[in-house]
Design brief:
The complex is a heterodimer of chains A (630) and B (371).
Chain A (H helix, E strand, L loop, with lengths): L8 H31 L2 H4 L6 E7 L6 E2 L5 E13 L7 H12 L3 H13 L6 E7 L1 H10 L15 E10 L7 H4 L2 E3 L2 H9 L10 E3 L2 H5 L1 H4 L4 E7 L9 H4 L4 E2 L6 E4 L3 H11 L4 E6 L6 E7 L5 H4 L4 H9 L21 H11 L8 E3 L2 E4 L2 E4 L7 E3 L1 H6 L3 H11 L1 H10 L21 H8 L5 H8 L9 H12 L10 E5 L6 E2 L17 H16 L16 E7 L17 E8 L6 E7 L5 H22 L7
Parallel strand pairs in A: 2-10
Antiparallel strand pairs in A: 1-8, 2-3, 3-4, 3-5, 6-7, 8-9, 10-17, 11-12, 11-21, 13-16, 14-15, 17-18, 19-20, 20-21
Helix pairs in contact in A: 3-4, 3-5, 11-22, 14-16, 14-17, 16-19
Chain B lengths: L6 H30 L4 H22 L4 H4 L1 H14 L6 E4 L2 E6 L4 E2 L1 H20 L6 H21 L3 H18 L3 H21 L1 H11 L10 H13 L11 H4 L9 H33 L4 H25 L17 H19 L12
Antiparallel strand pairs in B: 1-2, 2-3
Helix pairs in contact in B: 1-2, 1-12, 2-14, 4-5, 5-6, 5-7, 5-13, 5-14, 6-7, 7-8, 7-13, 8-9, 10-12, 12-13, 13-14
Classes of the chains: A alpha+beta (630), B mainly alpha (371).
């Protein structure tokens, strides 16, 4: 091995290896191509020019929403879409005639859809009609043939019916806004998610757009699967046994079922009692913040928005002066009226501006500045201590407390009890309400706090605004002895079929045992006074004592600023009725707040609804005795 | 018999380029029509580059390869400057999130294509000069390694992981055949693995691509999409193919059909037969390159020819490997065939260099090993 060039001996040894390895890799490529094209080529030889592999989406079943006893709140039902694949359509006229005769799709509709279909990719199944009747689907499938003669009236090549699970809300309006609804993903939403880099949704997918359906979309949704199928020129499935085993099928993963803390029985009672009136009922377990009722009326039927939402339906819902799309339980804030006296009493006692037995005389009004501020009882309550002032809801007593405390000290306690702050409930768009301070006034109204304004807020009027949810939290936290709780609606998620628990991250569901800094004596007095509201013959909600359940509560009647709701003259000027309560008085199991818009007096309009919910609670509890609560 | 011109090599290259032009047209016509209202848009540009490339080929064929040894450092610096120039605003062009092109007003220039060739020239020079000293660590091994590393790092800065990886592999193989100690090389490889792993893991789209490669069906709507469409195209081809221009995958499904994934269009339209013809042409090219290397008049020529052969061989392997789902998606073109002006011109220049080396063979009829 003499090599003319010095230093090439290594080269001679090693060069063949490098060359050989490269050659080996080329050989591997060669065999790989052979494998793909000749061995696996049979995979495609199975179909003629007309046949193609189509990937068909296997939609995931959306997780159900269940109440605390696993009763269905939202369901899925099988539905059929009539779709058209433009590239297989040979005679649009004969197709539309077929769709009219067999499925009752009007020609104007078909024309419009066909125009749109031609703009989308030719191979893409375009939805002609959502949720078609089952008979229509059968007829279409019967009349669809590959060979169409001239004299045949219909040509349904390219038409198909696709089955998918459609969201169903069996209780219709019940808890409508809270559950929310799903609808087809919008093109803007599609563009937005695609920009994010991941194609989470495809055209035709359903997505939760409001309420719980939106908030918990990622858990409820599941994961779509897909299936390869061989289809012929008509888009019909072909049975090609020799390749069936090679076709890929990926199962869909159903979404998680969502178990709520809501009690369907109580929810029904609350909504029935509200009836045609506008308002909200929120009930929760004061020991752990689990919401039992979350009702808002008027409501809407989410089924109406699940498919084929017409412009009219939308316009109707959006323009309805009764605002059915507004979830009054937490998206709307009202002056708390006399229910605010709970906060006032706590603030006054805690700050020591009043003694338990100090008497304040109510002549029926309080002169302040150059104006007389009236008590709701024109004749006055006479002299009374704080306990009686709560029971009889004396305005003059709390005007006096207001003047002693000032707005900032009142706000401190209101906020501590959860008013004027978001509760952090697991829903979107929660209203904060408003608890004014002198600083707030300066910053937002550019003027100093007027002393007479203190009198307004002392009885829950003026700037004060709270949501029914906040007010039920107030009742619950007073009732449970000052334990801080977080209202929530999600109990847990579970995998379908199994009991596998999945609690979302950050959703601990555990009771925070943090106590509010309120003296036990203060709370004890409040308990007695609020129990007196029902049990004392002079109490504003004494009628509830007929139920035979120890209930503590507070009525409220808040004046309506008349320019607030136009178009509803007459009732619109009536006051909002409030009632907040908990029962039983000792170790309460349920706290309820009721708001009836323009309902009139809290005692007559709101208290009976709370009473009915509480009654139902103890009634079903008795029936369920021995059955452990989930 | 003195052979002054390697016809086999030249004809293989001409056929590959011709093949490439045909497939570029077939795979890009619809895209071009949609985007530029002119179905031959890409074809015309590619023909222009092919013409420039063949002129470059005949020029470099006339330049004695020994000359490159004299200008190796200026070339090296020029190439490095061009690589950096990509980052200069207004001059550099950002396409698809990666800085890889220099805007020369008339046409875009991709400096990393030049840098591949320059790296090979530099290494051939360095390795030939070191000769036996290559075995010593500090004198022979370290300096060229550092310079190559610097070069590759700049390419990496352009987010061109594919070319960086290709260059790294070429460097290692060149060092190997030049006689560097295996222990050094092994150590270096072991050091390079975590570096590349980090580079892949730290960039989401690269990680996605790798995951998609391992299980394309699980990512079929995202990163795995291309690969699946490519495999479908290859399978659709069968033995005879769907016929030139009759491929369907390029229509809606296969992105970058005329660049990185041109091979799958070949496979779909021309079938196994077309693929074999192309692989054979490629094989002839690589084989001739190595023969030229083997018979090289001196060490520099040998290493230079080997380097070119390794570079093109690996790039072809990677590209086809990606299309076949054997290698993760890299973003490397198929030399001579894929659309891409800089790549084609540089490739043809390299062929010119090879032809010059072969024309200077001392003993063309006899292989050295038989001496």
């Amino acid at each position: 091995m003499d090599f003319p060039q010095e230093g090439l001996s290594d080269f001679q040894d090693r060069f063949p290896y490098a060359f050989g390895t490269l050659a080996l890799f080329f050989l591997i490529l060669f065999f790989r191509v052979g494998y793909l094209q000749i061995v696996k080529g049979g995979y495609f030889r199975a179909f003629s020019l007309e046949n193609t592999v189509k990937e068909i989406k296997v939609p995931a079943t959306r997780g159900l929403i269940l109440d605390r006893y696993y009763r269905t709140l939202t369901d899925n039902r099988p539905a059929f879409d009539v779709v058209v694949v433009p590239q297989y359509v040979s005679s649009p006229q004969k197709m539309m005639k077929g769709l009219l005769d067999l499925a009752g799709i009007p020609p104007e509709w078909s024309e419009a859809r066909w125009k749109l279909a031609k703009q989308s990719p030719a191979f893409f199944p375009f939805v002609f009609k959502r949720d078609a009747a089952f008979q229509a689907v059968t007829r279409i499938r019967t009349y669809r043939v590959a060979e169409v003669a001239k004299e045949d009236p219909y040509d349904l090549r390219g038409v198909d019916a696709v089955a998918y699970p459609l969201r169903d809300y069996p209780h219709k309006e019940l808890a409508g806004m809270t559950l929310g609804y799903v609808s087809e993903v919008s093109s803007e939403e599609l563009a937005r998610t695609e920009k994010g880099g991941v194609r989470n949704y495809r055209a035709g997918d359903f997505v939760g757009v409001s309420g719980l359906e939106k908030v918990w979309e990622q858990y409820l949704r599941g994961k779509d699967g897909y299936e390869q199928k061989i289809v012929d020129a008509v888009g019909r499935e072909v049975n090609a046994e020799e390749v069936t085993s090679m076709l890929i099928k990926e199962m869909a993963e159903p979404g998680y079922n969502m178990v709520l803390t809501i009690d369907l029985d109580l929810q029904k009672v609350a909504e029935e009692k509200l009836g045609s009136r506008s308002g909200a009922v929120v009930a929760m377990n004061p020991q752990n913040g689990e919401l039992l009722v979350f009702a808002s009326r008027p409501s809407f039927d989410p089924n109406r928005l699940a498919t084929n939402v017409s412009r009219e339906t939308w316009t109707e819902l959006m323009n309805d002066p009764r605002k059915p799309l507004l979830n009054r339980a937490y998206q709307s804030a009202y002056p708390p009226g006399s229910t605010y006296k709970i906060v006032m009493a706590i603030a006054a006692l805690e700050e020591g501006v009043v003694k338990e037995d100090e008497l304040v005389r109510c002549p029926g009004y309080l002169n302040f500045g150059n104006r007389a501020f009236h008590c709701w009882r024109a004749g006055g309550h006479g002299a009374m201590a704080i306990r009686d002032a709560i029971i009889q809801s004396c305005d003059v007593f709390f005007y006096t407390m207001g003047l002693r405390l000032g707005p900032d000290r009142i706000a401190k306690y209101a906020r501590m009890l959860g008013l004027g702050e978001v509760t952090g409930i697991d829903l979107e768009g929660e209203k904060k309400g408003l608890i004014p301070t002198t600083q707030w006034k300066l910053a937002n109204r550019k003027e100093a706090w007027g002393p007479s304004e203190t009198l307004s807020i002392a009885i829950g009027q003026g700037y004060d605004l709270v949501t029914p949810l906040q007010n039920s939290l107030l009742a619950a936290q007073v009732g449970n002895g000052g334990k801080k709780i977080e209202p929530h609606m999600l109990h847990h998620f579970e995998a379908p079929g199994g009991r596998e628990l999945l609690k979302p991250i950050g959703e601990t569901n555990t009771v925070s045992l943090e106590s509010l800094p309120i003296k036990p004596e203060t709370l004890k007095l409040l308990h007695e006074a609020l129990a007196g509201v029902v049990s004392d013959p002079r109490g504003t909600a004494h009628s509830l004592s007929l139920l035979g359940i120890p209930i503590a509560g507070k009525t409220g009647t808040s004046q309506v600023v008349s320019n607030d709701s136009k178009g509803l003259q007459g009732i619109a000027t009536q006051d909002h009725a409030w009632f907040v309560s908990y029962a039983p008085v000792e170790n309460p199991e349920i706290a309820v707040s009721v708001l009836v818009e323009h309902g009139g007096h809290g005692s007559s309009a709101a208290a009976p609804i709370a009473g009915a919910v509480i009654q139902k609670y103890f009634q079903t509890k008795k029936e369920r005795e021995g059955v452990p609560v989930q | 018999m003195k052979r002054s011109f390697d016809y086999t090599l030249f004809i293989a290259v001409v056929l590959l380029v011709g093949f490439g032009l045909t497939m570029v047209y077939s795979s890009s016509a619809i895209l071009a029509k949609e985007k530029y209202h002119q179905s031959a848009y890409f074809l015309k540009k590619e023909i222009l580059y092919a013409v420039i490339g063949f002129i470059a080929l005949f020029v470099t064929r006339k330049i004695p390869y020994q000359w490159y040894q004299k200008i190796v450092y200026p070339l090296f610096i020029l190439s490095l400057l061009l690589l950096v120039a990509v980052f200069v605003p207004h001059l550099g062009q950002k396409v698809g999130g990666a800085h890889r092109w220099i805007n020369l007003a008339v046409f875009s220039f991709q400096p990393s294509e030049l840098s591949k060739l320059v790296l090979v020239i530099y290494l051939a020079y360095a390795l030939a000069k070191k000769k036996e000293k290559i075995r010593s660590f500090l004198i022979g091994f370290v300096p060229p390694m550092i310079l190559s590393g610097l070069f590759i790092s700049v390419v990496l800065l352009q987010k061109d992981l594919g070319n960086a990886f290709l260059m790294t592999a070429t460097v290692f193989i060149l060092f190997f055949i030049a006689g560097a100690r295996l222990s050094y090389l092994t150590t270096e490889v072991l050091l390079a693995i975590p570096a590349f792993t980090l580079m892949i893991a730290s960039v989401p789209y690269r990680r996605q691509r790798l995951l998609a490669f391992m299980n394309p069906w699980a990512h079929k709507n995202e990163a795995g999409f291309q690969l699946i469409q490519s495999l479908v195209a290859v399978q659709r081809g069968g033995f005879w193919g769907q016929g030139l221009g009759a491929g369907k995958q390029k229509l809606f499904y296969l992105p970058e059909a005329h660049t990185d994934f041109i091979f799958s269009v070949v496979a779909e339209e021309l079938g196994f037969l077309g693929v074999v013809i192309m692989l054979v042409l490629f094989g002839i090219f690589i084989y001739r390159t190595f023969v030229i290397a083997w018979k090289g008049p001196d060490l520099f020529a040998t290493y230079l020819a080997s380097g070119i052969g390794i570079l093109f061989g690996l790039q072809g392997l990677f590209n086809i490997g990606v299309v076949m789902g054997l290698v993760p998606t890299k973003g490397l073109t198929l030399p001579f065939v894929s659309y891409g002006g800089t790549s084609l011109v540089m490739s043809l220049m390299a062929v010119g260099i090879l032809l010059n080396i072969s024309s200077q063979q001392q003993d063309p009829s006899e292989g050295r090993s038989r001496n």
